[in-house]
Amino acid sequence: MTAMIKLANLETKMFFRDRLSVFWTFLFPVLMIWLFGSMFQGQEMGGMSFAELYVPSWIGVNIVTTSFFTLGTVLASYRETGVLRRYQSTPLQPWKILTAHTFQGTVIFMISAILLMVFGMLMYDLTLPQYIGSTLLALLVSILAFFPFALFLTSLAKNTQAAAAISSLFLNLMLFLSGATFPLEMMPEILQYVAKALPLYYTIQLLRGTWNTAPISDYGLEVGVLLGIAVVSLFLASRFFRWSGQ
Q1: Residue 62 pLDDT more than 80?
Q2: pLDDT exceeds cutoff 80 at 170
Q3: pLDDT at 54
Q4: Of 29, 39, 76, 163, which has the fewest Cβ atoms less than 10 A away?
Q5: Residue 177 contacts residue 101 (beta carbons within 8 Å)
Q6: In 3D, which of 16, 117, 27 has the Cα closest to residue 70?
Q7: Contact, 208 vs 142, CB < 8 A?
Q8: Can you tell me the distance from the alpha carbon of 147 to that of 68, in angstroms, rounded to the nearest whole number?
Q9: Is 187 exposed, middle or buried (0-12, 13-18, 19+ CB in 10 A)?
């Protein structure tokens, strides 16, 4: 446990020294909310305001960016540069390394989520979630689904460039086709079906719903899908974990 805490603490410090990572994790979502706010502010969609729909959505998007870029791509880089080979000579087992990085990613994500919520309150009169306990559970379920999902996908990459390409592909697909940025009602019917095949769609529905409408008990399908992804991804992430690119 002590080794995992020290590793998570070290990775967190290294994250904050990387200005590019800090920008994409903390400032980019704020800029996107401001951009879409200038487009949709004052409009109601489905009886909800811009902030009620899109601040929870971008918190969901930040789970994806943290999963793929703060965790998956970083571990792929460590694998390519031999950092993980050095870990292999220590008592750290793969699950301890994955747990430490997951804890670090969760801390980073929670800071970004609070930042987005405060920005929404100051700029767009966003209110606290109506079912705050359910919203926190929804965040936990989403993290459990996406963190191992990203670790598994990026573990298939042979180098950092391939991991970054995989991360960018999945991020862009989910960003524009899940309803996180543009209402699904504006899309062709075929794309609405595609959206329901993307994990982020269920996170968006869960976060929007528990923030504005009903407790998490009313979203059994979304919770079930995400927990299913979590179980399968945890198994695959552990199964395909590699100390090196060889």
Answers
A1: yes
A2: yes
A3: 86
A4: 39
A5: no
A6: 16
A7: no
A8: 8
A9: middle
pLDDT tens-digit map of 184-195: 888 888 888 888
Written as six digits, the tokens of 222 are 């979304």
d(C-alpha 120, C-alpha 114), whole Å: 10
State pTM to two decimals: 0.87
Counting Cα atoms < 13 Å in the Cβ hemisphere of 219 gives 28
Joined tokens for residue 20: 């590019």
Q: Which two tokens stand for residue 59?
A: 């918190």
Whole-angstrom Cα distance, residue 190 to residue 181? 17
Local structure of residue 71 (DSSP, 8 states): I
Distance CA 84, CA 163 (A): 16
Dihedral sign of CA atoms 108, 112, 114, 115 in order = positive
Q: How far apart are CA 67 and CA 226, in angstroms?
A: 14
pLDDT confidence bin for 7, thresholds 50/70/90: confident
Asked if residues 207 and 139 have their Cβ atoms less than 8 Å apart, the reply is yes
pLDDT of residue 132: 94
